[in-house]
Amino acid sequence: MSMEASERTMFVSAAVDYTGAPASRSTTGGWVSAASILVVELCERLSTMAIAVNLVTYLVGTMHLPSSTSSTIITNWSGISYLFSLLGGVLADSFLGRYWTIAIFANIHMLGSCLLAISSVLPNLRPPPCNPSLLDNCKEANGLQMAVFYISVYTIAVGLGGIKCSVSGFGTDQFDEKDEKEKAQMAHFFNRFYFFISIGTLLAVTVFIYIQDRVARVWGYASCTIIMLLAIAIFFSGTRRYRYKACRGSPIIQILRVLVAAVRKRKLKFPADMQHLHETHPTESRLAPTRQLICLDKAAIIDDDDYIMIESGTQNRWRLCSVTEVEEVKMMTRILPIWATTIMYYVIHAQMITFAVLQASTMERSIGSFEIPGGSFNAFFIGAILLTLAIHDRLIVPLLKKKKGTLGLTSTQKMGLGLFISIITMVVAAIVETRRLKVAKSTSSTNSTLPISAFLLAPQFVLAGAAEGLVYTGQLDFFLSESPKGMKAVSTSLFLTTISLGFFVSSALVAIIRRVTEGRQNWLPANLNHGRLDLFYGLIALLSAINLGFYLLSAKWFLCKKTQRQTQTRN
């Protein structure tokens, strides 16, 4: 073996260690480094979900806000949290790098948890306690108290966005794709990454929510702070073993460059031979030009000003882009209809952490002498996700491989089936709520707990979890496999925005329904026992059915265009 070949096996290409020297294959990266990152994700998920899933009961029971207002606050907060991942992605890709992005934003997340714990225990930062059954006579939180609350939770949101956009990418940086052994380990990393997310969420909705409801809020939120402090310590302990990769610039900037260049050159005519369009990428990494979205190809037209700059050794990348850069943006544009039609699932997901939790809080939740917190019913949700993934991997994949030679359901099939199950989820939820309301009308208003089992809510949590297991994994597979190689990060961020926008749509629906039904039979009053949440669920089911129709059309269009694109490339 030559000296040069020996060095290639000793060091990982395009990666350095904490000193900036080439990363040694034997002393950096691998599972030891990845394990530290997995623990960070577990702690982040545990801390975030322990706060998010039970926050609606804090706003209603402690801050004395109406249920619909509380739901809107939480869905807006959740939506903005995922939007911050776009900002974190730009910072990580262009300036800070993934290591420092995680380190900085994990500390911000911990600070937010600490502020929330403090605000939950200081008497001046929350309204005086009152009888939950007489909620209309309770004193709502004042401006100062809500301001401190918002500062706390939105500090957590900023931290969440920074961590979420970088942690999976930094984990994969610890493996070398050019090494067959490490490439196989990377595939296992993704499986374990999702497993750790699920375990963190499961612990959050059981152990930590129990601490909040049965011990004290301050201890529940303080535990989240301690968990994040532990995550930070473990993360920094692996500094010497991590592999680091240089910032390559944000793909979002590339998309903006292509759009700006195409607009600036919109009046130019295409050359007679499209081979004369600008191209700088190596032959092996080039994308062939396609006839779809041809208006974007104008960004690659070379005009007189471009010739002058090229001859002088300079180039304005906001005026001239390569064909490959344009084709990468086209690929991202083609997935937008699928992106738009998967947003609706997360409207349903939002109901599971808001109104469904409030429903459970009004119902009988005891098993013997043990009373289950309302937020802990999301354990059915997480369990259904894990069960759905196991059924797909252990039953459906072998069956379809044997019969059709395929590796399970395709990403579009997963998303379509998940969207269909989500419609059934809302129908079941509406039926259960109708029954709960009948019991509420026949029960004394002084009773804080209705004589009806909260386990009637279990089917809707299970169905929503099964839908999420299909939609989430289908989206992740779709956005990563159908996006260009250089835009995997922005594609992941695009996927996360479906979650964000789903929460915003939920907030908008709540606001519209409150205004339309105000003064009549209010569907979403402060006390759910006096409302018509069943009709609200029915409306979401109807909108989801319409959305499913648009999704099926979008999926058919995408697959048709993909086939055409592949045919053009071969020709």
TrEMBL record:
Alphabetic keyword roster:
Membrane, Transmembrane, Transmembrane helix
Q: Where in the cell is it found?
A: Membrane
Query: Which InterPro entries does the entry link to?
Result: MFS_trans_sf, POT_fam, PTR2_symporter_CS
Please give the Gene Ontology molecular function terms for this protein: transmembrane transporter activity
List the membrane topology term(s): Multi-pass membrane protein
* Gene3D superfamilies tied to this protein: MFS general substrate transporter like domains
Q: Give the chief site where it resides.
A: membrane
This protein's record includes keyword Membrane: yes
Q: Which GO terms describe its cellular component?
A: membrane
Give GO terms for biological process.
oligopeptide transport
Transmembrane segments in this chain: where? 46-67, 73-92, 99-122, 142-163, 193-212, 218-238, 336-357, 377-395, 415-432, 452-473, 494-516, 536-559
Q: Which family does it belong to?
A: Belongs to the major facilitator superfamily. Proton-dependent oligopeptide transporter (POT/PTR) (TC 2.A.17) family. Belongs to the major facilitator superfamily. Phosphate:H(+) symporter (TC 2.A.1.9) family.
Q: Identify this protein by name.
A: Protein NRT1/ PTR FAMILY 6.2
Q: What is the species listed in this Swiss-Prot or TrEMBL entry? A: Sesamum indicum
